[in-house]
Design goal:
The complex is a heterohexamer of chains A (100), B (109), C (717), D (329), E (141) and F (475).
Chain C (H helix, E strand, L loop, with lengths): L1 E3 L34 H13 L4 E6 L11 H9 L4 E7 L5 H12 L5 E6 L2 H14 L7 E5 L1 H5 L4 H19 L8 E4 L3 E5 L3 H12 L3 E5 L4 E2 L16 H14 L3 E4 L2 E9 L2 E8 L2 H11 L6 H5 L17 H4 L9 E2 L3 E3 L4 H4 L6 E5 L1 E4 L3 E3 L15 E3 H10 L8 E3 L2 E3 L1 E8 L24 H15 L4 E6 L9 H10 L3 E4 L7 E4 L8 E7 L5 E7 L1 E6 L1 E3 L3 H7 L26 E3 L9 H19 L3 E4 L4 E3 L9 H5 L6 E8 L2 E8 L9 H5 L5 E3 L4 H12 L7
Parallel strand pairs in C: 2-3, 2-4, 4-5, 7-8, 7-16, 8-10, 16-29, 18-27, 21-22, 21-27, 22-23
Antiparallel strand pairs in C: 1-15, 6-30, 9-14, 11-12, 12-15, 13-14, 17-28, 19-20, 24-25, 25-26, 31-34, 32-33
Chain E lengths: L11 E7 L3 H10 L8 E6 L7 H10 L1 E8 L9 H18 L7 E5 L5 H25 L1
Parallel strand pairs in E: 1-2, 1-3, 3-4
Chain F lengths: L1 H5 L17 E9 L3 H11 L5 E4 L14 E2 L4 E2 H14 L3 E4 L2 E9 L7 E8 L14 H5 L3 E3 L8 E3 L1 E2 L11 E2 L9 H5 L12 E12 L3 E3 L16 E3 H8 L19 E5 L18 H15 L4 E6 L9 H10 L3 E4 L4 E4 L5 E7 L4 E7 L1 E4 L3 E3 L34 E3 L9 H25 L22
Parallel strand pairs in F: 1-2, 1-12, 2-5, 12-23, 14-21, 15-16, 15-21, 16-17
Antiparallel strand pairs in F: 3-4, 6-7, 7-12, 8-9, 10-11, 13-22, 18-19, 19-20
Helix pairs in contact in F: 2-3, 2-9, 6-7, 7-8
The chains are: A mainly alpha (100), B mainly alpha (109), C alpha/beta (717), D alpha/beta (329), E alpha/beta (141), F alpha/beta (475).
């Protein structure tokens, strides 16, 4: 799969938040998320950590499943703020979609 | 704790009065403790009555006595600690309990 | 404190009031039979007991069901009560508890019994407990025998067979107990001196603590430097203390302490004696070896690659070019107490150890503290590309570079003139190896242990890189992050916030380091199946790979042989019991401090060293030590002086022939030096007259036990 | 699930053109205040953000979207943005049943009643009461949100408004947190129950027929977590003599009603709503919430839910048989 | 070994276990709660080098069926003891042969503190030997 | 109490105490906490001849360790290892034990005079039993009609209002708590030594020492700290110390059963980091022992319930100590399942099983599984808040701060006051015992230096006397 890109976190910071770096991929957010499906939102944060920009854009639709309910942020053991990271990723995607 | 204290041997009446005063002083604890003891006594009696028929598993005892299963187990464990009941053989996923007097010779399985 | 075997009185250290005798030639007082336990008194007691026959008390433990679930304890008790010679037989839920011990003590005090058998768990756990209870009740603690009916009965046998076997074992113990004489511990005078082997942090800490407690300390260090592995470190995890400052402080105190003598560039080449009075021979480290040591130690994992390309301009950069006589050719400003990164604090040169023509030095000491440290694992050639790619080095090497260049900041980490845009650190290199997955080393060993400190060290290094060189990105490839210590989890979280990227690999699918395809702009690429990304294979192009090499046992084979030290399956030195006696060895008077025992971080090393010191101080506080009396004793009436035992003795010096007067005639008789006797019994088996026995372990006692095992017992199989 | 790009462009275009996400003309939506005798002046301005009013229309949109979700017609939504905004909005309005619109108005009138009962002095100016743009923010269309928020904030500022009372969590969050952060607006914003609490000096709202009910509160995410305003409704209800029987998932740990998913996946929204309704049903008590979206979504899941305002305004929930049997039952 | 064989029917096995290695090894088997036949009697010894030849022969005479000497092997804390022990054993074997005793009844082995499996193997093997040797005797009885 | 604490202490030797029968004693060292850290410290000090007072809040010494079943990685029985140390301390002529005793104030007085001394004001809580008279026969315990949950057995069985604290307690003396006593008088009736004292009052004690060692240990983080794990209200969700009791041979049921109804569990799950490494709970640090105790318990469980499935949900397995990793690998080889996931939440089910919600990172993602019994691997919180009691500094993690964690790990910011064991951060038993030795070394050095400065004889025996407070010592 794709190579890592250390610069993406900076892009995300510009979109509002870079706390996703603090995620240690414990999976609490996935299991607590009311969507109760797949690896969302952790996998999105993981892609962000790795800088897997293509994967994020490919799977962007997933982001809009987020209800912005904040439960993941409330329960995140690392304070990685997954809810806000998802919002930032939405902004990143909207912006890149607007650009194209 | 010291000798001066242990030597005290008040008369019977004085002792009674002292207990009475102490009961009044500790009414906030004595009342609930007495109630709880009565409740446990009644529950233990029910368990004894049930086990007098035959050994039984905690859910069976609970069903027969109307006690909650967790309370039943808790009381059984307490009664076992003081030698009143013993663990008997196993039925499915549960052990049976029996009154100590009529327990089989050894619970060894 | 020390005495040279070849004479050089002028250079003898000041404290020459020490006994000026070679222990082998002229035994110290405790070896002297005159000061050994008063045998006559013992014989009197034995005679008393002959008139006052053995009354054995048998005490059987339920062990809260551990025993009584499988052994019918009450039945055993009844059987034992019926046995001849058994005065009382009792049971208790926990014999080791106060009420249990009180049972024994009450029977002893009341005179109902004069021998004790306790049947309970393994004697390794409670033999001492019961011996001490007997002593408190005024009995003789050696008139005690233990029957192991938990580990060797109730936990392995069931039903009637368990009950029967327990009966027989207890019966055998009672049989032996009936024959046990009253013994007293051997009293050994103890020198209030300690030798510490190893001048790293553990050795320094232990030396200081003992010296502060009024014990004369001699610190032996192989190299010319104090500080060991810590000398190679810089900012320490998790809060960033400076390793060199820490070392300077500790070594400075040691060097300034009037109670400590430092013998640098010395190794232990001979060992003798026993607790309270050990003798150690120190040899001057041959110069070429010093360099070898320095190579091995200071330049941990003397990276083939890094050697070719020096890391920095610090003096430690090319140890291989170190002059053969270092102290004389060190930088002129280098003085004793001065610090060189990678080497440590320069130790003084002892006048008596300095010149090559002087012979070895013999020192005598009451205790020995082993602080011989560890080695850093050297990756195999090709392990994660090590030694095949100049861009692969070890974490210790990277840490040393970061320490050497501490003042440097800049967008990118620069190493050997090369800017590092991306750095990958691979964890668990040479640690947590799994049989069947990892390859054994030349000696057929695997390092199955976790090296404990590498996670924190890796993350600490990553944080330093990220904070000093924000454009250098860091990837950590780990199996489990083990930031267990105080402040370490916070450091790990900080690394994540610093955007260090963590990739999780599994042991059976280790990352691969390979040359990057041309045109990618990076020399290397690390491919890893990342458990955090649904097991997808990720490729991380990097400029540098650091291997977080673990700790492996130090090269102490000679010491292990010489002192007969126990070594664990992990090949580190093995304490007696990790919880009951964590810094002690079976060899009394020898203690463990630091990473010779297991991987530890600096704080843990200092705790362990202080714990070893406190045991040593307690042991030496009285000026004498008591030892078990389980040594050989000769029946002078039966001995014919044939000398077979002397020939068989495994510890030369413990047994000899002496001429003495017996019933008016001068005869030759075997004579035991108790403090040197190992109690192995090699002499017992060869005596044609059965005239020699081990106190507390006599042949007759064994025969009695066998008799009880085979004899008919009512209702017992 | 619908394509987020399509939804976002539609909503953004609507807001840009009409200041409303569904393109319905405000005079058509915001009619509740008529006949309430609300003054235009006061210490503070009441601002509904039109959320209560828009919910009936959202329900309609959802019904429509539900019909096409994951069908071959779904992609056609992309073309919807080319439909004239006013026209689609009017169509939506026509499709939305009147009783639903009336019910929304009822909640707002209850809020007004409660505020009046507590002596809070406030004014209302329909022309300033605009949609906050929160949905754009939630969907990640930061650009459109900021543009809209700036517009709304500027108009409020020009009108000299400094203190605002809000009625729903979404608008409250937007005005309290997002406006200061993204457009530098500095209003003093309180929800109506904060205002009530202050209006009564931290005491209860006095009511003649108060007390006695056991209630289970569903905390909206924005109140429970983002704004940490869970204690206040409980305190007010407690003051009225009611008891709150909370589920484990309450306060900061409240579970989402599923409402926000409506825009992208009505099916998902319904599933989450049903899950939440099940959690809440465990207590067996009357459910209460304080967000028009939560109210709507939980009702859709079959729950019988009251709006907090109804209890605060009347002291006790009215036991009207037609109301007790919720619309979904 | 056969599950039905009653432990009581077998002859007894004496195990001389060194206190620094084999005895803790036997404890370790216990800690693991691994079961083995109960006809085993473990005596703790400082070093088996203590026992003269006649001790072993006496044991067999008294009715011990088999003896396993569990030493520390090369890791013996008493340097030279293991070698001396092995040499002594050769002499014991010679005497056993003279007396018509199957030499498989006596074994010298090394057991460390964690050699659970080795311990169990030794015990089971000795039991097999005893079963084999004693089978005809039992049939006659 | 307050007046004693705040009034100027002209003479530290003055006997104070509100009860009028308070005691005082002069010791070389004061050890706060009678768990394994405190006992080891006291033993190492006493073996050098220093007199020590060990102050323990519970009715027995032994701390957390004596309450465990077995200990990793050797699987020794905890009691077998702890009781020798407990007994050794109890019988040591240089050690005085004070049980049921709280520290109200620990401060340095007359600091300008050669460092002054440490003075501790203590409250001796009443046992309502004359500790000298009690012979530990348990007659009172059998006679007492009141049952209340026995915290020593995880609450899984009852204990009486008066009882011996637990089977291997030291001292083996009865203790009565007024909260559950109905004052029926039955215990006094049956007591063969008339040891019951219903009207016993707390007493103030004053101890003086030159050094102190804080060995105040930890407390387990409460189950109620994590809402998603059910706040302690989900049946068959228990904490790890409760599981220790279920595994202990002298535990409440004598075997492992599901507490809701006594079922033999078929499937048991461990939730790791249930009280640690969790910013959402305000505990960011690693509690360091939970991985190993969970693995240990899992191994013991697979021994006692060979057919049961055991699953450990974890983030990182931290088997860092000597032989720990090998222990972990053995557990894997034994078939214990390790699932890399932090459990997000737990739910009860009808039948008593517990649903575990987690992310299956190797499979489909969101996953749930049902287990008959769920053990929360709770973490360590500081056992003691010095607060107003003692002016010793606390670090950000709430544990006692150490000023030289690398070179002198037992040193606190308060001169003459040292710290050992979990009081200075979570720690396992091995590290605790080693650190206790280290603390004893540093305390001894401090004492020796003080003695040297004061021109006193080097032998500490010369100036120490056995304290007059003897009620808690026994033997």
């Amino acid at each position: 799969m794709a190579q890592v890109n250390p610069d993406f976190m900076e892009t995300l910071r510009q979109a509002g938040t870079d706390t996703g770096a603090e995620c240690n991929n414990c999976g609490t957010c996935v299991a607590i998320c009311p969507l109760a499906e797949g690896h969302f939102p952790r996998l999105m944060l993981r892609y962000a950590q790795l800088g897997a920009q293509e994967l994020i854009l490919d799977q962007a639709q997933e982001l809009w499943r987020c209800l912005h309910c904040g439960l993941c942020t409330q329960t995140c053991p690392r304070g990685a703020n997954p809810g806000e990271v998802i919002l930032a990723l939405k902004r990143f995607v909207v912006a890149s979609w607007r650009r194209s | 704790m010291t000798q001066a204290k242990t030597e005290r041997t008040p008369g019977k009446d004085a002792k009674k009065d002292a207990m009475k005063a102490l009961r009044a002083e500790r009414a906030q604890w004595v009342g609930p403790a007495t109630a709880k003891a009565a409740e446990h006594k009644k529950a233990q009696k029910a368990i004894r009555a049930c086990l007098a028929q035959a050994s039984a598993t905690p859910p069976e005892i609970a069903a027969a006595t109307g006690l909650a299963p967790d309370t039943t187990l808790w009381l059984l464990a307490s009664m076992k600690k003081f030698g009143e009941v013993v663990e008997a053989d196993k039925t499915g996923a549960y052990y049976r309990y029996a009154l100590a007097a009529q327990a089989p010779e050894s619970g060894e399985g | 404190m020390a005495e040279r075997t070849n004479h050089n009185p002028a250079q003898a250290p000041a404290d020459s009031q020490a006994p000026a005798h070679n222990p082998a030639k002229n035994p110290p007082p405790a070896q002297n039979h005159d000061q050994a336990p008063d045998r006559n008194h013992d014989h009197d007691q034995a005679q008393d007991q002959a008139q006052d026959p053995a009354r054995v008390g048998v005490y059987i433990c339920y062990c809260g069901g551990n025993i009584s679930d499988h052994v019918d304890v009450e039945a055993v008790r009844a059987r034992m009560a019926a046995q001849p010679g058994v005065a009382v037989a009792r049971t208790n839920m926990f014999m080791c508890s106060d009420p249990g011990q009180e049972l024994i003590m009450e029977d002893l005090r009341a005179g109902r019994i004069n021998r004790v058998v306790v049947a309970s768990c393994s004697p390794s756990l409670h033999e001492g407990t019961f011996r001490s209870a007997i002593a408190r009740a005024g009995g003789n603690p050696y008139q005690y025998e233990h029957a192991n009916i938990r580990e060797q009965v109730s936990w392995v046998h069931h039903g009637q067979a368990a009950t029967d076997k327990a009966t027989r074992l207890i019966s055998a113990a009672a049989g032996k107990a009936g024959l046990l004489d009253a013994l007293s511990p051997l009293r050994v005078e103890a020198l209030r001196r300690a030798v510490v082997i190893g001048g790293g942090v553990a050795g320094l800490r232990a030396a200081l603590d003992m010296a502060d407690s009024g014990i004369q300390v001699l610190l032996v260090e192989r190299t010319a430097w104090l500080g060991g592995a810590v000398a190679r470190l810089g900012r320490l995890a998790p809060v960033g203390e400076d390793a060199s400052g820490l070392l300077r402080g500790l070594a400075g105190q040691v060097l300034a302490h009037p109670g400590v003598t430092v013998h640098a560039r010395a190794v232990v080449s001979g060992f003798g004696g026993y607790l309270g009075n050990f003798s150690l021979t120190l040899s001057r480290t041959p110069d070429p070896d010093v360099n070898a040591d320095v190579n091995a130690d200071a330049n941990a994992n003397a990276d083939a690659v890094a050697d070719a390309a020096p890391l920095s301009k610090m003096p430690s950069k090319t140890p291989s070019k170190m002059p053969s006589k270092m102290p004389s050719k060190m930088p002129s400003k280098m003085t004793v107490g001065g610090f060189v990164r990678g080497l440590g604090v320069l130790a003084p040169t002892q006048p008596d150890a300095a010149s090559q023509d002087q012979g070895p030095l013999t020192v005598r000491t009451g205790v020995i503290v082993l602080a011989t440290g560890h080695r850093s694992y050297t990756p195999k050639r090709g392990e994660y590309g090590y030694a095949e790619n100049p861009e692969v080095l070890t974490l210790p090497r990277l840490i040393q570079h970061l320490a050497d260049t501490e003042a440097e900041t800049g967008p990118l980490l620069v190493l050997n003139g090369r800017a590092i845009r991306r750095l990958a650190i691979i964890h668990c290199v040479g640690s947590r190896q799994i049989p069947g997955i990892h390859q054994e080393d030349e000696s057929g060993c695997l390092n199955e242990h976790c090296s404990r400190v590498c996670c924190a060290a890796s993350i600490n290094a990553a944080n330093q890189v990220r904070e000093r060189h924000p454009q250098t990105s860091v990837y950590e490839l780990y199996r489990d992050i083990r930031t267990y210590g105080r402040g370490q989890e916070e450091m790990y979280a900080k690394a994540a916030a610093n955007r260090v990227v963590f990739l999780r690999y599994s042991a059976d699918d280790a990352p691969e380091v390979r040359r990057c395809p041309a045109g990618q702009g990076f020399p290397l690429e690390v491919a890893v199946r990342d458990g955090l990304t649904l097991g997808q294979e990720l490729r991380v192009p990097v400029d540098l790979v650091a291997l977080a090499t673990g700790m492996v046992p130090g090269p102490v084979a000679e010491l292990v042989d010489m002192l007969k030290l126990p070594v664990g399956a992990d090949r580190f030195l093995q304490e007696v019991h990790p919880k009951l006696r964590p810094v002690e060895l079976p060899l009394p008077g020898v203690f463990l401090a630091g990473t010779c025992q297991a991987p530890m971080d600096i704080g843990e090393v200092c705790s362990a060293a202080s714990a070893a010191a406190v045991k040593a101080v307690a042991l030496l506080s009285k000026g004498h030590v008591e030892l078990d009396p389980f040594v050989a004793e000769v029946d002078e009436q039966a001995c014919t002086g044939c000398g077979a035992c002397v020939a068989a003795c495994l510890n030369k010096g413990a047994l000899g022939l002496e001429t003495l007067e017996l019933d008016g005639a001068m005869v030759s008789r075997a004579r035991v030096t108790p403090a040197l006797c190992l109690g192995c019994g090699a002499c017992v088996a060869v005596c044609p007259e059965y005239a020699i026995d081990i106190n507390g372990w006599t042949l007759a006692q064994y025969e009695a036990m066998v008799d009880r095992i085979v004899c008919r017992l009512e209702g017992v199989a | 699930m619908y394509n987020h790009q399509d939804i976002i462009s539609l909503l953004a275009a609507n807001v840009r053109a009409t200041k409303s996400p569904f393109g319905i003309p405000k005079p058509l939506v915001n009619t509740w205040w008529k006949g309430q005798g609300l003054g235009r002046e006061g210490d503070v301005l009441l601002m509904t953000g039109l959320m209560y009013q828009l919910v009936p229309y959202i329900e309609t949109v959802t019904r429509q979207l539900e019909r096409f979700e994951d069908t071959r017609f779904m992609p056609y939504l992309a073309w919807a943005r080319f439909v004239p905004k006013l026209l689609s909005g009017l169509g939506l309005a026509a499709l939305t049943p009147a009783p639903a619109k009336d019910k929304a108005a009822l909640h707002l009138r209850d809020i007004v009643a409660a505020l009046r009962a507590s002596g809070v002095s406030f004014g209302y100016r329909p022309e300033l009461d605009e949609y906050s743009g929160i949905l754009l923010y939630d969907l990640g269309d930061q650009e459109s949100f900021v543009r809209h928020a700036r517009l709304v904030a500027e108009r409020l500022a020009q009108a000299g408004v400094r203190r605002i009372i809000t009625v729903d969590p979404h608008t409250t969050y937007a005005l309290k947190v997002l406006y200061p952060r993204y457009v530098g607006a500095q209003f003093e914003v309180r929800t109506y129950f904060e205002a009530l609490d202050m209006g009564t000096g931290g005491g209860a709202v006095a009511s003649p027929d108060a007390g006695g009910a056991r209630l289970t509160l569903h905390d909206p995410c924005f109140y429970g977590r983002y704004l940490e305003l869970s204690d206040l409704p409980r305190r007010l209800l407690g003051g009225l003599g009611h008891q709150c029987a909370d589920v484990r998932e309450c306060g900061a740990y409240t579970s989402c009603c599923g409402g926000p998913a409506e825009a992208v996946s009505p099916r998902l929204s319904a599933r989450i709503g049903a899950g939440r309704a099940g959690q809440l049903a465990a207590t067996g008590e009357q459910l209460v919430t304080m967000c028009p979206i939560c109210l709507s979504n939980l009702e859709k899941a079959g729950a019988n839910v009251l709006d907090l305002s109804a209890i605060l305004a009347r002291g006790l929930p009215r036991r009207e048989p037609d109301q007790a049997a919720g619309p979904g039952q | 070994m056969g599950g039905q064989a009653s432990v009581g029917a077998q002859r007894k096995i004496l195990i001389l276990a060194t206190e620094s290695c084999a005895y803790p090894g036997a404890d370790s088997v216990g800690q693991a709660h691994a079961s083995y036949p109960a006809n085993t009697y473990i005596l703790k010894v400082k070093a088996p080098v203590l026992f003269p030849e006649r001790f072993y022969l006496d044991c067999f005479r008294k009715g011990i069926g088999g003896i396993i000497i569990m030493s520390c092997g090369e890791e013996c804390p008493y340097k030279g003891a293991y070698k001396a022990m092995a040499q002594r054993l050769d002499r014991v074997y010679a005497q056993m042969k003279e007396q018509g005793l199957d030499i498989r009844r006596l074994r010298l082995t090394a057991i460390c503190t964690v050699c659970n499996r080795a311990f169990l193997n030794e015990v089971n093997q000795m039991n097999q030997v005893l079963q084999e040797l004693d089978a005809p005797v039992q049939a006659q009885a | 109490m307050d007046s004693a604490a705040h009034s100027p202490q002209d003479s530290p030797q003055v006997v104070t105490g509100t009860g009028g029968t308070g005691g005082m004693g002069v010791f070389d060292a004061l050890v706060i906490g009678g768990g394994i850290a405190g006992l080891q410290t006291a033993l190492d000090l006493a073996d050098q001849g220093y007199s020590c007072a060990v102050v323990e809040k519970d009715a027995s010494i032994g701390g957390a360790m004596i309450r465990l079943s077995k200990v990793f990685p050797t699987l020794d029985c905890a009691s077998c290892i702890t009781t020798p140390k407990m007994a050794a301390a109890a019988h040591h002529e240089k050690i005085t034990l004070l049980t049921c005793c709280d520290v109200d104030r620990l401060e340095r007085v007359n600091a300008d005079e050669d460092g002054g001394s440490l003075v501790a004001t203590l409250t001796q809580r009443p046992r309502h039993v004359d500790i000298e008279a009690c012979i530990g026969c348990r007659k009172c315990e059998y006679a007492c009609p009141v049952l209340t949950p026995d915290a020593e057995q995880g609450g899984f069985s009852g204990r009486k209002a008066i009882r011996i604290p637990f089977s291997n307690a030291i001292p083996q003396k009865a203790v009565l708590d007024v909260e559950h006593c109905m004052l029926c008088g039955k215990c006094a009736e049956v007591c063969p030594t008339q040891a019951i004292r219903y009207d016993q009052k707390p007493e103030q004690l004053r101890l003086e020492a030159r050094a102190a060692v804080l060995a105040t240990g930890f407390r387990l983080s409460p189950v109620a700290d994590k809402r998603q794990y059910g706040l302690g209200a989900i049946p068959n969700v228990i904490d790890s110390l409760q599981m220790e009791r279920l595994l202990a041979p002298h535990g409440p049921y004598g075997r492992v059963l599901r507490p809701s109804d006594g079922m033999i569990p078929d499937s048991i799950a461990y939730v790791q980091c249930a009280g640690s490494r969790d910013a959402s709970m305000g505990v960011g640090y690693c509690s360091r022992v939970c991985c190993m105790y969970a693995i240990k318990q899992a191994m013991l469980l697979s021994g006692s319930l060979p057919l049961a499935d055991i699953t450990i949900y974890y983030m990182d397995i931290r088997a860092f100590g000597k032989n720990y990793e090998q222990f972990y690998q053995n557990a894997k080889a034994m078939g214990i399942e390790f699932v890399k996931a932090k459990v997000a939440s737990l739910d009860p089910t009808e039948g008593g099983a517990v649903t575990v919600h987690y992310e299956d990172q190797t499979g489909a993602g969101v996953a749930t599984r049902e287990h008959d019994l769920v053990v929360l691997s709770m973490g360590m919180l500081p056992g003691w808040q010095p607060g107003q009691v003692c002016p010793v500094a606390i670090a950000a993690d709430g544990f006692i701060d150490t000023v030289a964690p690398k070179t002198l790990p037992s040193l606190t910011a308060m001169p003459g006051v040292f710290v050992a064991g979990a009081a200075a951060g979570p720690k396992d038993i091995v590290d605790t015992i080693t650190e206790a030795g280290g603390a004893a070394m540093q305390a001894a050095k401090y004492l020796a230096a003080r003695a040297a400065n004061a021109g006193l004889a080097r032998t500490p025996q010369a100036r120490t006397e056995k304290a007059s407070i003897q009620e808690a010592s026994h033997g």
